[in-house]
Protein: Aryl-alcohol oxidase-like protein
Amino acid sequence: GLYTNPGQLATTEYDFIVVGAGTAGNVIANRLTEESSFTVLVIEAGISSVSMCPILSTTFSPNTSLTWNYTTTAQEGLNGRAIPYPRGRVLGGSSTINFQIWTRASRDDWDRMANVTGDIGWSWDQMLPYIKKTEHLVQPPDHYNTSGEIIPFLHGHIGPVQISLPGFPTEIDQRVLNTTQQFPGEFPFNPDMNSGYPLGIAWAQLSVTTDSRRSSSATAYLEPALNRTNLDVLITTQVTKLVSSKTVDGMPHFDIVEMAQSSTNARFTVSAKREVILCAGAVNTPQLLQLSGIGNETLLRTVGIEMLVELDDVGQHLTDHPFLANHWLVNSTNTSDSIARNTTLATELLQEWEVTGMGRLLDPGTNQIAWLRLPQDDAQMEDASAGPTAAQIELLPVDGFASFVEPIPATGNFLTIVSVVSSPFSRGSVTLSSSDPFDDPVIDPGLLSDETDIEIMVQAIKTGMRMLNATSWRGFVIEPTSSLAAATTTAKLMDYACNFTSTEFHPVGSARMSSASSRSGVLTPSLHVKGTSGLRVVDASVFPFIPAAHLQACVYAVAERAADLIKADWV
Ligand SMILES: Cc1cc2nc3c(=O)[nH]c(=O)nc-3n(C[C@H](O)[C@H](O)[C@H](O)COP(=O)(O)OP(=O)(O)OC[C@H]3O[C@@H](n4cnc5c(N)ncnc54)[C@H](O)[C@@H]3O)c2cc1C
Structure:
């Protein structure tokens, strides 16, 4: 059942307690309750569902009732700016508010995870069945002929999350595709970026259903399981810490979960007979571990928390993708800019979507994505990617003005080419600001804090400019907007990058896996918190390195394997 208050629960003891009904948490909840002998409680801080119109993602965050409204520390690499850092705080977590791009990363990304952890189970070949297990490839909402835009046999066809191609053609689609014909060396066409070999320009794939709704972990994994009698879901309740009631095999056994509905409300506790599974995401999972006395002794002592388990890497190695929107004025009146400026038009389009499921509101922002290596003449540059099949940079062409940093100009129509450092060197951290679980943690994603990442970002901007040299953009692109136009030297481009970069909202690594014997890292390859009993982490914080991809498909796949690892221990 679904409960809104801990006092409503019929019991205070479950086999498994899942903290966070987010992307990963709902996979765990669904798969564990397939075993009718297991009882599972999921505790979620946020509220229940929302409207599911795909493009409205940009109105879901930051600073809404659906998000943790975090702000980063002043980012040195961003010329001292602090930026909004939203995470989903709702059933489905960030899968309910994200931009729905569906990418699996490369073979090398997964194989690196296997190498670093010493567990072949994380390799591409062994994870592919789990990646497919989440997917159900469906027709795009407008049911056009998608042949040549995706390779259906590479995909899953019976999984819970519906995957489709973009449902609204834009005027730049053909221009992007013509670029691949004119410059196939630098911008080859890739018939499906989710084959394990993502490099090139390919059609975007999205977690959007065939009837033009968002497919989230709430709609795909949680709702279908809600009627199971062995599953309870408690919302609007924040877990405040985990407590160890006993020692097992010489290690503290974290079986008690403490929670509250607000900082002033009473604390409740529930206990897990088998395991507690932390699925609170890359910001809140390290926060909860530290609140529970698991972390670096000095850092814990500064906020007055007694250390129970020494794990210096908790909250460290936070890694994210820096995201920079570059803009050009274009000769068109068909870009999405008129929707952003005209509320009457936006309302009409929303009505069109509600009635027909069609229209411009199905434009995900980007219909194609470029995953690229740096050009040959930059080959001497240091490389943090997982290997030759992994992207170093990503480009996202958008038919309109997109930015998380600048407001849309009052007039004009625009092209945006977002440039992203997909395999960054920079690292940051999540630490406690106090021992109060209701205080925001200190979030420092360290965006562009390593100078090489700034150099790579400049190469990404220049690569986007080379893309626009194709004849298909002639007569359409007029000129770069003023800040980009003024950045006429590499040094100025570096400064421009620091002034306008923000986040792709992809934090990972803050509770990373390492090999079983390694003294660093936070988790064993089977996702147990090292030095503890009864406690695992399953969410974006587990990745030892950031995959060169949008992360949700990778998180779902990790959670599918994690569910099998847990079942194997208890069935
Ligand atoms: C704005 C935005 C856009 C994005 N766009 C894309 C995209 O287009 N494509 C893509 O692949 N990825 C995208 N991502 C990234 C992707 O959505 C995330 O990497 C992924 O969803 C993370 O999953 P998770 O399970 O780690 O955490 P989440 O899905 O965030 O789940 C964590 C859950 O735990 C809950 N929680 C946290 N703390 C507590 C607590 N103390 N007590 C109880 N509950 C708690 C949260 O409320 C949340 O529901 C985007 C992310 C954001 C924020």
User: Anything to note?
Assistant: Residues 448 and 508 are 16 Å apart (CA to CA). The domain at 2-50+218-317+509-570 is CATH 3.50.50.60 (FAD/NAD(P)-binding domain).
